[in-house]
Design goal:
By secondary structure, the chain is mainly β. It has a single domain, classed as Jelly Rolls. It has three helices and eleven strands. The strands form three sheets. It has a six-stranded antiparallel beta sheet with strand order 3-4-5-11-6-9, with no helix packed on it. It has a three-stranded antiparallel beta sheet with strand order 8-7-10, with no helix packed on it. Pfam families: Cupin_2.
Length: 197
Amino acid sequence: MGALKPVRRIVTGHDATGKAIVSAAGPLPTVVPIERIPGTVFHEIWSTAATPAPVGNGPDPTLGALVLPPPRHGSRLRIVDIPPDTEAFLAHGAAGMKEAFAQIGDAAASTVEAGSPHPLMHRTESVDYGIVLEGAMTLVLDDSEVPLAQGDIVIQRGTNHAWANRSGAMCRMLFVLLDGEYEPEVRAALAARKEKP
């Protein structure tokens, strides 16, 4: 797989008479390389901040600071380019990965600690659809791993996880994130895990 091509976005809307129009077409306005994870790039495509989502001609919701989770009662659509894991990257301490998550707009999402299966372990209270567009990836959970190939789809339901690229080549994934709320029994189990020494 060669260099990954730029993402092109087409946004539709309506004119004053209700006729369907193209509001915007071209490269994404928000493409963010993650400094603490060289080679990782977030391509912000769109987001909504309510359910039901307002359908109109509002402003581009991707402008502004990068934020990992979706807005409350909203959604987020992005592509992430993920480079192969390197020994130097894997040797980063928890503080370095918390800095990476801070750049992504959610330092609290990082769950990495001594003994974590991967330095990018994290959790968000959301339902995320992750689709491998190009390359290969490994989904890392607390006690298991799942190899993923192009076309595979992961339904991530607020679990502690990381994306490990052990393929030796770039991987591109599409993510749709939906704001969520833990069911009471899941929230209680997670709170109990935090209290254990």
